[in-house]
């Protein structure tokens, strides 16, 4: 399998100069070579034959539409408030994504028809067939080509294909995943890692807490993921969501299986009883160009650190978030800036699925933002709220300074400054904690000549594996640390007797059960800054995986991530280890020992029959950390991505031309001051991602202006 050379030379073990890093990131990506015989054979097909092949592919789409009509008439679709509803909210497509994916699926089906009828009979492998087809335009005059060209001409911000660091890893080279007769089932992997870890976890609880980092490191990691990456699920042709499990959380009858279904199923046994089922719908596909080819997944996010998760990925979504008065974002106003909450949503998508997994008749809290993932948990809601408040605070300051400015000018300027503050916190405060200061400095030193445009796409490996490291750092509960403070942690209030925990994570995922008030958010923020994060490792807290012997009560995030990595055609962990660590070809389990602790490696040996099978997410989270929060392989993938993100920021600065001078006015802002100015906390640590200590002193928020 061919490798991406620019990633191959990047190592997180030995730091190198910034200039050499830049050069490595720009090396070409070698592709599968098409032999002259294959080239001649496929070139020999007539234009009419290519038209027929496309027509055959479209016929399969029409058959799928008839199946969808039967599914809808049988009421096999996602119900409000169900577990499948939770997964849908995490991968909710907008209408434009559905349009992209529908055309991309037509191209894929046509390509698969070429593979099955022209390549397979001549013993042409899937990778070589795909390599040929990726350079073969759709036939002139075909309706599919016209649809494709029309889409590309109206291309929206975002809606790019995820790029690949390594070539796609599919059974047929195009789209077919490796089945569970070869690989262990995702759910069984998650259960095995949880059970093996919990044998000694009670005795070694301290070993699972990070010594210096607070929960802010994981909280902001999720916020960054929401900004840069949003793989979304496929939908039916009319936009209805796809359901792959029945109402009892068991597998559907074969006649009710949609082709996009790849449900996560437990093992039926005497211990577990009948096989349980968690919904998994394969990711929406992207149109990269109007050529034939294999599957490439769509990223609905913009690929920039631009707070699009708050403001919206599209102009239409942004308009929904604006008041169009004084440059403000919408909020649930409670009389003062520091009391404002996110706006409540009454919006639903076309099929009645809101931003929360409540039943259709529920009258419950549900917040609105530019991204459906805002309500994923209280950590997420808090950061969205901080940046909403900061935008409106900036707009008020600018209106006072420039009373003649229009709403549009106030809004765009406040947004630009808000984004600039956010970028500096991420790149200069959060990233060094994740990668280690040396590698983060190298990423920031990456520069290219301004005439060389870097690609806007996010890597598949970043989007569905490396950026998800934070889930292993989240505890089951957020403790109410305020109740033990000698001094009141919130300005102008007295702290009453409070419960031990502020919330249990599993109860809050897309179901905001907390009675949200400004004071409650201050409690959450204070505890986030003072509670230790769990170490990144192969152990996930029980609140984000499902390990019981019963019908699932919540989703299993690790099993979901494993399944999605396979859906997206990611190479196994060993391939990325070879590239990132420069250890040469991996030939056995012993090559993992330098990177993965013995106990974690022993678990893997009991789960996988071969070291060549280990999934990227499983190997990546198990690695020993290297200076920062993550290990060598995830550090490699993250640094590659953030170097590109940083370069794009240099080429396309956030501030609009008329307000470039505003940048200097807000240079004083950092993470600590951001929290002070947008909460009622009395003090925050200088480094908001580390626990307060003698080396990380608290700053008095009353002195921040």
Structure, described:
51% of the residues are buried. The strands form five sheets. This protein has a two-stranded antiparallel sheet. It has a two-stranded antiparallel ribbon with strand order 2-8. A two-stranded antiparallel sheet has the order 3-4. Residues 1-29 and 492-497 have low confidence and may be disordered. It has helices spanning 5-8, 18-25, 36-43, 47-73, 83-90, 95-119, 126-133, 143-153, 186-201, 216-228, 308-311, 315-321, 378-401, 407-435, 437-444, 460-464, 518-530, 557-567, 573-581, 598-607, 616-622, 632-651, 662-665, 671-677, and strands at 160-161, 209-214, 264-265, 277-278, 298-299, 477-479, 501-504, 532-534, 683-685, 698-700. The protein has a domain at 308-537 and 633-703: Myeloperoxidase, subunit C. The protein is 41% helix and 4% strand. It is globular, with a radius of gyration of 25 Å. The chain is built from 24 helices and ten strands. Helix 15 packs parallel to helix 22 (632-651). It has 705 residues and is mostly helical. GO terms for molecular function: heme binding; peroxidase activity.
